[in-house]
Design a protein that fits this description.
Elements: H1 34-44, E1 57-66, E2 85-94, E3 109-117, E4 120-127, H2 140-147, H3 158-166, H4 172-178, E5 193-194, E6 199-202, E7 208-217, H5 226-235, H6 239-249, E8 255-263, H7 265-275, E9 294-303, H8 308-313, E10 326-327, H9 332-348, H10 424-432, H11 435-449, H12 454-467, H13 469-483
Antiparallel strand pairs: 1-2, 1-9, 2-3, 3-4, 5-7, 6-7, 6-10, 7-8, 8-9
Helix pairs in contact: 3-12, 4-10, 11-13, 12-13
Family: Belongs to the catalase family.
Binding site for heme: 341
Organism: Rugamonas rubra
Length: 484
């Protein structure tokens, strides 16, 4: 295929793209060679800041198709009618590593989905785990720093990681998942996804239910052993990217069954009274026996992006993006993310990142936001302000229209740590594992723990013991085996 003639970014034809303009054959270069200057200037600015977390990722386009009617729960139009299809975009990622890190590192995997609906973009920004390490966003920067590099050595530090985890029993549930076989999934096609947080749905009658979103892989769960993950980190550090891209290119489109757990506020209150677990605590899950999975639809990926930077690196998700018929919950971690994600993209990509094609809604939009860097869609001649409605606001019936959420208690800072059960669910997860899976868990934990000081090790072992005595005993045996 013949390439079109080279031009500057302003469309001016370039006479010579091989030689810089100079004063004589060997003389110094001329500042008037604008093509050279523009080329170097843009090259110097090709990299936008990488994501602080989820920096290494892969993406693709696809579709969501409704298979079951959930209109009794939500008025969101993307669910209107069995068979209805919505264009989607997905980005999968590791969490702690830099853009050049290996796809096979032991790490949670980001599972971020965008649905381009007729009512705006819905972003469901989750992970391949249904729980998380912490329950309050004020600790998120501290936690992430422990997963990054030591400020002195610039090396990853097991001591930093386990110093944090051993002082935060709430993390044990996710730590158990992370160091299990599911901590190193075999690519992105062979893992489940979760919205993780508790969200809400609102129907036409204004009735609210709380929900958790699940994406169950139709390809089957496949994980890498620790040894194979380490081998691939050297032999093919882009293993997950390559696997996803090549599968879609050959027409082997990956698919996930989309399912929901649903509960009313009264049902959650009764469950909390019985179990003692806060249903909005991100370190906990809703057991399926208490809240069964209900089918909703099928999510498929079937088209690779044409340009990685434009469509994957610049993709900017935010869990604040929910469409009418959807809402949030009192989950403290979700509340923090509603601010943090959009703010991160304002810094990383730019003030008008929502104008970029991968981020722009596929439906008409109108607001009074104007100007700033890269104002691709700047409102034309439309007025840039809305007047005050002197008689008071009159809801249009459009938009979210959520019912009011009752609030309880005085404004303040509340610390429930120490009085909450952070061990039972972690123990339940451990007891679900086969003998072989448990041994892998013990060995995977013994590796980094063997590099950590005795005080931290003993503190962490105490948490394993409280989850299940066999859990602590197994890690102790694995540590002793490594010391021989």
């Amino acid at each position: 295929m013949r390439q079109p003639p080279i031009t500057t970014a302003s469309g001016i034809p370039v006479a010579d793209n091989q030689n810089s303009a100079s004063a004589g054959p060997r003389g110094p270069l001329l500042l008037q060679d604008f093509h050279l200057i523009e080329k170097l200037q843009h090259f110097n600015r090709e990299r936008i800041p990488e994501r602080v977390v989820h920096a290494k990722g892969s993406g693709a386009y696809g579709s969501f198709t409704v298979t079951h009617d959930i209109s009794r729960y939500t008025k969101a139009k993307l669910f209107n009618g069995v068979g209805k299809s919505t264009v989607t975009f997905a980005r999968f990622s590791t969490v702690g590593g830099e853009r050049g890190s290996a796809d096979t590192e032991r790490d949670p995997r980001g599972f971020a989905l965008r649905f381009y609906t007729e009512e705006g973009n819905w972003d469901l920004v989750g992970n391949n785990t249904p729980m998380f390490f912490i329950k309050d966003p004020i600790k998120f920067p501290d936690f992430v720093h422990t997963q990054k590099r030591c400020p002195q050595s610039n090396l990853k530090s097991p001591t930093m990681m386990f110093d944090f985890w051993s002082k935060a029993p709430e993390s044990l549930h996710q730590v158990t998942m992370l160091f299990s076989d599911r901590g190193t999934p075999d690519g992105y096609r062979h893992m489940d996804g979760f919205g993780s947080h508790t969200y809400s749905l609102v129907n036409e009658a204004g009735e609210r239910v709380y929900v958790k979103w699940h994406f169950k892989t139709q390809q089957g769960i496949k994980n890498l052993s620790a040894a194979e993950a380490s081998r691939l980190a050297g032999a093919d550090p882009d293993h997950a990217q390559r696997d996803l891209f090549e599968a879609i290119e050959r027409g082997d489109f990956p698919r996930w069954d989309v399912k929901l757990q649903v509960a009313t506020e009264a049902e959650l209150a009764a469950w909390e009274a019985r179990t003692g677990w806060n249903p909005f605590d991100l370190t906990k899950v809703w057991p399926h026996k208490d809240f069964p999975l209900q089918p909703v639809g099928v999510f498929e990926l079937n088209r690779n992006p044409d340009n990685y930077h434009a469509e994957v690196e610049q993709a900017a998700f935010s869990p604040a993006n929910v469409v009418p018929g959807m809402g949030y919950s009192p989950d403290k971690m979700l509340q923090g993310r509603l601010f943090a994600y959009h703010d991160a993209q304002l810094y990383r990509v730019g003030t008008n990142h929502q104008h970029l094609p991968v981020n722009a809604p596929r439906c008409p939009f109108h607001n009074q936001q104007r100007d700033g860097a890269m104002a691709i869609a700047n409102g034309g001649i439309a007025q840039n302000y809305a007047t005050v409605e002197a008689a008071g606001s009159r809801p249009s019936g459009l938009g979210h229209g959520e019912p009011g959420l009752a609030l309880h208690g005085a404004a303040g800072r509340y610390d429930g740590r120490g009085g909450e059960d952070d061990y039972t669910q972690a123990g339940n997860l451990f007891r679900l594992m086969t003998a072989a899976e448990r041994q892998n868990l013990f060995d995977n934990l013994a590796g980094p723990l063997s590099q950590v000081g005795a005080e931290i090790v003993q503190r962490q072992l105490g948490h394993f013991d409280q989850a299940d005595p066999a859990y602590g005993a197994g890690v102790r045996a694995a540590l002793q085996a490594r010391a021989r």
